[in-house]
Amino acid sequence: MAEGAEWLAAAHPPFARALALCGPPPLRRRGDGFEALVGAIVSQQVSVASARAIAAKLQAADLVSAAQYAEASEEHLRANGLSRQKARYIKALAEAAIDFDALREAPEDEIVATLTAVPGIGRWTAEIYVMFSLGRADTFAPNDLALQEAARLLFDLPERPKEKPMRAMAEAWSPWRTVAAGMLWHYYHHAKSREGIT
Questions:
Q1: Residue range(s) defining the domain that contains residue 44
Q2: Contact between residue 19 and residue 183 where contact means Cβ atoms under 8 Å apart
Q3: Are 159 and 184 members of one domain?
């Protein structure tokens, strides 16, 4: 992260300002595989506290592996905290039989295509998975609202860039787009905490 942050700061003055203000962003690595994607689905549209509570309930019910989810009834999944929609998404993921070991070495486009073929996994979730679970240095999630707002603030843009212009803007940050995302998130939290918003 530090190497990428220095490169970005040298190439783009706004990143130099962000680095001076906030320091290098933290490394946010997570596990990969089936469990990581279950966590992503569980976290959709709920608070962090709610997602943790649901995850704990699922684990207590011994719902961990793809095989266990594939065998579980929708009623059992719903009884353990999942909405009907999320139960369907996780069963679809379990039944997709994704080779997560092969995915680690696959090109990003192939990873995104494989994951987004599963109901309930959109491009944003797939890109976040590539960034944090697979640790790729040059991935970006241009549809992320916090990244868009941070780019607006840091680059002094007249409005928050939408997905397409954000993706185009991020091309200039290659080969360190994941680090650029980390710096933008870091800057966003700094800016919002100064406004009294956390």
A1: 34-133
A2: yes
A3: yes
DSSP designation for 132: I
DSSP assignment letter at 125: H
Q: Are residues 145 and 188 located together in one domain of the fold?
A: yes
Nearest to 24 by CA among 194, 180, 196, 198: 180
Counted domains in the chain = 2
192 exposure class (CB count in 10 Å sphere: 0-12, 13-18, 19+): middle
CA distance 132 to 129: 5
> How many other CB atoms are found less than 10 A from the CB of residue 109?
8
Per-residue pLDDT reduced to its tens digit, 85-116:
999 999 999 999 999 999 999 999 999 999 99
Per-residue pLDDT of 25-79, as tens digits, reads: 988 888 999 999 999 999 888 888 999 999 999 999 999 999 999 999 999 999 9
Q: How far apart are CA 33 and CA 98, in angstroms?
A: 9
Tokens of 124: 């944003």
Looking at the fold, whether 121 and 150 belong to one and the same domain comes out as no
